[in-house]
Amino acid sequence: MTQRLTRARITAVDTRDIRFPTSRRLDGSDAMHPDPDYSAAYVILRTDAPDGLEGHGFCFTIGRGNEVAVAAIDALRPHLTGAELGAAPADLGAVYRALAGDSQLRWLGPDKGVTHMAVGAVMNALWDLYAKRAGKPLWKLLADLTPEQLVALVDFRYLTDALTPEEALRILRRAEPGKAEREARLRAEGYPAYAASPGWLGYSDARLASAARRAVAEGFTQIKLKVGADLEEDLRRCRIAREAVGPDIRIALDANQRWEPGEAVAWVQALAGFDPYWIEEPTSPDEILGLAAIRRAVAPVKVAAGEHTANRVVFKQLLLAGALDILQLDACRVGGVSEHLAILLLAARFGVPVCPHAGGVGLCELVRHLAMFDYVAVSGTREDRTVEYVDHLHEHFTDPAVIARGRYTAPSVPGFSSTLRPESLRAYAYPHGAVWLAERAQGVA
């Protein structure tokens, strides 16, 4: 189905530094990041269209440095203010290539780091705007595009030794039969999720056990534990978690890049008695050969990575090197929806399940759209697929993620679910929002 929209011109690009003091309760704490304040470098795009709709997007950070991400979004403003938006979503492929290819800003990457995350924030805001104007949730807008329109969104530079446009078309056309049936099942059954909240490293043993039991009672069939700081602590915490959930619930482990490759192998082998399903980010996200070596050594424990992978080119190399069992796409790390599509197609080409990362503020809201689109229109399966879920900060969004019986329900509200509530934008603006003024008054900010 081709979606045509009236043209519009961008009239304003507003940016905000939004931070939540999650470090006070140790939410999000892990072996490498013990005190995160979940944050969003936030952008709002306004146009001259009479519908008055706005595009909202953000890139996720964990506190200090969020202002740098905001500055990177601001640096893209000359590309945006006054720019005319095309009449079809497929036109956004050219917009992505223009933003990512800025001849001076790309020097700071290219295609990685803060400038690339800023491109992702802007592109996600544009997709949010297009989906709102089309009256569809993003996953549905994407699923309704033709294979040819989807392929036009992808930048195939540096990918064609692993994925050509012709191969991408074959993947998408192969998924076309049964799309309507899969969409109906998605709306009726939702998409599998796993619970990450029980396993924050800063939680007490009692809190870990109760949260793990609660996750099982709520219908989750997988939980995740942070590991990597102290082996004896990890052994004890894995024992507590396994006793709490029983033998049939999957337990994933996440080291958040803490180990050298050899250390990772020894550590995972020491924890193997608790039957871990995967080990996530066991070493540097750029250690392609190290990840491949770890994967060979720790099987049948799976290796999962990708939340810090910079771009589609590095994902291609991880897949070519046989370094991943699970690909963990992140909605705010790469260059937005167009690059996510390239990564989903690469994963389908190599037959690797995509289990998106969704730990930080707003990530659950976004990645459910990408996973659901993948199921309906790309991979055509939910087998061995699951999306991370954390149980905080959703109340700040106008279209929050909803879990029922351990599954994400399919969003029905038009857009990318990326819009923060106006009152949250005011209260959590850094450093002068009411929450941060109160923190400083108490001497804790």
Automatic annotation (TrEMBL):
Keywords: Lyase, Magnesium, Metal-binding. One of its GO terms (biological process) is amino acid catabolic process. It catalyses: L-fuconate = 2-dehydro-3-deoxy-L-fuconate + H2O. Gene3D superfamilies: Enolase-like C-terminal domain, Enolase-like, N-terminal domain. PROSITE patterns: MR_MLE_2. It comes from Streptomyces sparsogenes DSM 40356. Pfam families: MR_MLE_C, MR_MLE_N. Its EC number is 4.2.1.68. Its cofactor is Mg(2+). It is an enzyme of class 4 (lyase). This is L-fuconate dehydratase. One of its GO terms (molecular function) is magnesium ion binding. Signal peptide: none annotated. Residues 205-301 form the Mandelate racemase/muconate lactonizing enzyme C-terminal domain. InterPro entries: Enolase-like_C_sf, Enolase-like_N, Enolase_C-like, L-fuconate_dehydratase, Mandel_Rmase/mucon_lact_enz_CS, Mandelate_racemase_C, Mandelate_racemase_N_dom, RHMD-like.
